[in-house]
Amino acid sequence: MITLKSKVISICLILILFSFSILNGMVDDWGRLSGGISNLFIFFSESLWPPNWSVIEPQNYPVCTTYPLFDFTCSTAWIGMSETIKIAFVSTIFGSIISLPISILAARNLSSLGVSYFARILLAAARSLPSIIWAIFFVILVGFGPFSGVLAMTIYTVGYLGKLQYESIEGMNSVPLESARSMGLSKIEIATGVVIPEMANSLISQVIFMFEYNVRHGTVIGIVGAGGIGYYINLYLKFLQYDKVISYLIIIFIVVLIIDFLSISARSYFNEGGDVSKPSWWDIFLPNLKKLK
Amino acid sequence: MKDGIATTKFYERPIVKLIDVEIGYKNNETLVKIPDLEIFPGEIVAIAGPSGVGKTTLLRTIAGLVKSISGKVEVCGKAIPHRPKRGELGYIPQRLGLVRHASVMHNVMLGANAGQKKEIFHKNKYIKLVGNSFLSLLPSKEAKRKSLEAIRKMGLSDKVGEPVRRLSGGQQRRVATARTLAQEPVLILADEFLSELDDETMAVVLKRVVEYIRNNNAALLVVEHDISRAKSMADRLLVIDDGRINPFITEVTMIEVKV
Q: Is the ipTM of this complex over 0.90?
C-alpha cells in the first residue's frame, strides 16, 4: 500500500531530479564550478580585501562644515545610505496611501467581481516589473536622481503591498462584515469603520515590512542612476575599485540588519495573536527604558 | 405580558413575512420549511430548537445574508434578498460581529450612524450616491448622543473608550446589543444574545430590549436554544423540530408553542 508519506517523498524526489535535468541542459561544462570557486578566492584576496574605509571619510568637495565629530555625515557612504533610507521611507508612505484604497477595491469580500478584477489587474501591472526596471523607466522619464527612485519604488510598493493587503482583508473574519451589511452601512463606511480598524494591526505590520523591503531594494536602484548608495557602488564598480565596493556592501549589510531587527520588533507589537496592548512609538524603539521607569 | 411590560397592540402590516420558504444553503438539502410566518410591529418572537436544525440560517435568510432556496421572504414590505435600507434591520449574530480592535464607542457609533438617514438631494444619481457615501462618514452629535445613551443603558458607561477585545464575553454581548439599540432599527434579529450573561445582567439587557420593542413598535426575532428562556421572553414561541424534541415528527417542522 502506498502511504501518503511515500507519495510526498516520491513527488519531492521527482521534482528534484527534474530540476537537475533542466539545469544540466543549461550548463555546458560543470568544471567551470571548481574554476569559479578558485576565482572567488583570488578575487577576494587581491581585489576585495581589505575593505577601503575611505568611503566613510568626508569628501574633499563639497567642503564638510559640520562639527568634526559628525564629519562622517559628509562621507559618500552616509550620503548614499541616508538617501536610500529616505527613498524607501517616502515611497513606503506614498505607496501605502495609494495601495490601501486599491486593495479594498480588490478584496473579493468587499467589492463586486468586476471592480475586484480591475483593481487586481492594476496591482499586478505595478508588481509585474521589478523595482529596478521601474527605476530605468523613470530615469528616462524624469532624469537621474532620487526623484526617479521614489517614483519607481512607490509604484512597486503599490503593487506588492496592495497584494499583501487585499489577501489579508479577504482572510478577515466575515461576521463583522455581515453585521455591518445587514445594518445597511455604505461600502465606504464598512471600509473605514470595520475593515481598517479590524485589520489595522496586520496592515501596519505589512507597511513596516514593506519599508524594510524597500530599504533592501533601494540599494539596487541607484545602479541605474535612481539615487541612493547604489549610485556609488556602480561608480566604483566602473573604476574597478572593488575594495571600496566591499565597504559599501558591508555598510548595507549592517544597516539592513539593524532595520530588519527594528522591523521585527515593531511588527511584533502588531501581531494578531495574543491580546497585545496598543503600542506607542516609545514602546517600539525603547522598550527596556519603559520597564525601568 | 412579560416582566411587567405591557404588550402593545400589534399593527396589521407585518414587518417580516415568510411564505412557503425553504431555507438552507446552496447545493445542500433544505434545512427547514416554513409555510407561513408573520411578525408584527411590537411583537417578540422566539425560535427554539436543537442545534444544527437551521435557526441561525433562518435569521441569516431574513437578514438577507443567505438566499432562501424557494418561497418569498419580505422585510418591511420588500422582498429579500435586497440590500437592507439604512437602519432598517439590526442583527446581533451569535459571534457578535464586533470590531474587536476598536473601542466600545466606535462599535456602538457604527450602529448609530447606520440609524442616521443623512441624504443629499441631487438630480444625478451617481453624484447622490457618492455624496451620500461621504456624508455618512461625517460624525454627528445626534449619533454620539444615541451611542452614549445605548452604552449607558447596557451598563457600560465606564468602558466607553476600552477596546472590545479586552472585555469579557458577556460585556461584548452587551456592546453588540447597545450597537443595535443605538441604530434604532425596525426589526432586531438576535442570535442567542442573552447567553454568557449572568441572571442579573440578563434581566437588565432583556428589559431594555423589550422596552425598545414595545415603545417603538419594532419587532424582535430571537433565536434561543433554551426553550424555557425563550418562553419567558417571547409573545410567541416557534419550535423547529427535526424529531429530536418530538420523536413522532419525521421531517423538519416549525410549530408554534403557546407561551
A: no
pLDDT band at A122 (very low <50, low <70, confident <90, very high): very high
CB contact under 8 A, B88 and A184: yes
Find residue B72's DSSP bridge partners: B19
- CA dist., res. B163 & res. B57, Å (int): 30
Q: Which residue of A has its CA nearest to B132?
A: A186
User: pLDDT tens across A175-184, in order?
Assistant: 999 999 888 8
> For residue A127, how many other CB atoms are within 10 A of its CB?
18
Partners of residue B65 in chain A, C-beta under 8 Å: 178, 181-182
Q: What CATH number does the domain located at B1-88+188-200+214-259 have? A: 3.40.50.300
Instruction: Tell me if domain B1-88+188-200+214-259 and domain B101-184 are identical in fold.
Output: yes
Show residues of chain B in contact with A109, CB under 8 Å: none
The CA-CA-CA angle for residues B159, B163, B164, to 5°, reads: 85
Chain B neighbors of A192, CB-CB under 8 A = 137
Domains of chain A (ranges, CATH numbers)? 72-292 (1.10.3720.10)
Averaged over B46-71, what is the pLDDT? 86
- What is the average per-residue pLDDT within A73-90? 90
Mean per-residue pLDDT for B101-107?
Answer: 90
Q: Which of B16, B99, B129, B138 to mutate to test the interface with A (most CBs of A within 10 A)?
A: B99
Show which of residues 115-144 on chain B sit within 8 Å of chain A, judged by CB atoms: 132-134, 136-137
Interface A:B, Cβ pairs < 8 A: 94
B66-101 as b/e: b if 16+ CB within 10 A: bebbebebbbbeeebeeebebbbbbbbbbebbbbbb
Domain ranges of chain B: 1-88+188-200+214-259, 101-184
pTM score above 0.80: no
Q: Give the closest of B84, B95, B163 to A184, CB-based.
A: B84
Task: Assess B145–A contact: CB distance below 8 Å, yes or no.
Answer: no
Task: Write phi, then psi, for A184 (nearest 5 degrees).
Answer: 90, 20
B101-184: CATH class: alpha beta
Strand bridging mode B89-92 / B187-191: parallel
